[in-house]
Structures are given as C-alpha cells and as structure tokens.
Design goal:
CATH class of the largest domain: Mainly Alpha
CATH architecture of the largest domain: Orthogonal Bundle
CATH topology of the largest domain: Arc Repressor Mutant, subunit A
Number of helices: 13
Structural class: mainly alpha
Number of strands: 6
Strand content: 5-15%
Helix content: 40-55%
Radius of gyration: 18 Å
CATH superfamily of the largest domain: Winged helix-like DNA-binding domain superfamily/Winged helix DNA-binding domain
Shape: globular
Number of domains: 3
Strand order of the largest sheet: 1-3-2
Distance between the termini: 23 Å
Largest sheet: 3 strands, antiparallel
C-alpha cells in the first residue's frame, strides 16, 4: 500500500491530539515521506496530498514533532534510514527490545566498553545524564564540540544515538535568532515506563509484535520489504512474520 492508496486513518489530521491518535493507530511512521521507506507519513496524514511542499501542513507537523515527545504522546528521533521518525508509546518498548537499547541513565560507560557506542556518543550521553534535557548548542558546548569540526562529530554521534533509540528529540528551544534548536533527552529518562517494559521483552517477541503491526497496515508486504525496513536478517524476518500470525 502506498500513501495514494486507502489510508489507515479516515480523516485529515488537524490537531496535535489527532496526530497522537494517528500515531497510536499506525504504531510508527515518518515525519515526511522518505523514498524507499514504505511507511505512512505524518505529512500525508495532515495534507492528504503529494508531493511534499513547505506549506502550512509542513509547519504544523514541524511543531508536532516537538510537542508529541515533550508531552510524552509519542517518540521522535532520526530512526528509519536516519530520517525523522515517530514511534507510538505502545510500540516503543518493542523497538527498544529489538534494538537491545533499554538502557539505564548511567549506562553510557557500559555501552561504550561493549563497543556499542563511540566515544563522542558517550560524551553526549554523559552530558545529558548529568544535566537533563539540553538544546543543541548548549549540548555541543558541554561536550566541547562547538567548533565546525566538532559540529560534524556531534551530528554523527547524535545520529548514532538516535538510530539506537538511546536519545529522543524532546522539544525545541530558541537559542539564536535563527531557527529554534532541537532539545534532546535520554530515552531512559523521557520514557521510563516504556524502557522498563522493554527490559521484559525478548528481541524475538519484539520483532513479532513489530511485524504484526506493520502487516496490519501493509498486509501484502513481502518479507524482503519487512527485512529491509527493519534491518532484520532473512531468518529473523520469516520467524517474526510467522509468529505475528500465530
């Protein structure tokens, strides 16, 4: 199913509350459509049209990406293919479990020693652990990544943490006269209930739940599409699909 086909939400998403209900329904989606990523987008849910334009709908969802996590109505980070992605609070524990990322706030050193995060990612994690939610420039300064080269390192490490679901976009802050900066927080502190739930779910059970949710929206999706989207191996994909139907 593409976004031009019958959509899993009958009405245009007009408000933040609509957006939260939409996310609860689909389970996970992207902010804007992403080429090669077969997922619903919040932009299409609001605009009900293609192609994407920087219009009033784009401005609306740009605010919602800040408000949904801040109000703990949904998780937002650069996850699917490193692009802006939402996970519902119900599905978040399963994604944390399948990524084995249900970490404690103080786990930065453990993840670093296990080779799961880089040195720069550990620096960001430890700064957030010590200071709580921080806006981009403030966080870069705290990590001594405030130079041009440091900014490149910061962006790479921040993407690493977001793709591992260890850090969540947590609102925005007007640090300069330009665009508002994103604020970030550790997932473990922003979503403690979901992190705790994830610790009780095996990766196999998590993949089955994710596959089941995805196949509700894309019932005809071939296994290769599922594997490519979620980064699963062929055996993991077939097992998840089989389990989702049992």
């Amino acid at each position: 199913m593409s976004e031009s086909d019958p959509f899993p939400w009958p009405k245009r998403v007009r408000t933040l509350a609509d957006a939260a209900r939409f996310l609860d329904r689909v389970g996970f989606c992207v902010l804007f459509p992403v080429k090669g990523v077969e997922l619903p987008s919040l932009y299409f849910a609001a605009a009900r049209k293609k192609p994407v334009a920087w219009d009033r709908y784009a401005l609306l969802i740009w605010d919602w990406k800040d408000e949904l996590p801040r109000k703990r109505r949904g998780f937002y980070a650069k996850y699917f293919k490193g692009r802006g992605s939402f996970l519902s609070t119900t599905m978040l524990p399963h994604f944390l479990a399948q990524e084995e990322s249900a970490a404690a706030i103080e786990d930065a050193e453990r993840f670093y020693k296990a080779g799961r995060i880089t040195h720069d990612a550990r620096e960001i994690w430890e700064a957030l652990a010590a200071h709580g939610p921080m806006a981009t420039l403030e966080l870069r300064n705290a990590c001594k990544m405030d130079t041009k080269a440091g900014n490149i390192r910061f962006k790479k490490a921040m993407l690493e943490l977001q793709r591992a679901l260890l850090v969540v976009h947590f609102g925005a802050e007007q640090e300069t006269a330009a665009w508002a900066s994103g604020r970030f927080e550790l997932t473990a502190r922003a979503f403690p209930k979901q992190t705790s739930e994830a610790q009780k779910i095996t990766p196999e059970v998590a993949r089955a739940a994710i596959a089941a949710k995805y196949l509700q929206i894309y019932p005809g999706a071939p296994p290769v599409q599922v594997a490519r989207l979620f980064g699963w191996s062929k055996p993991e994909t077939h097992s998840a699909i089989a389990s989702s139907k049992s």
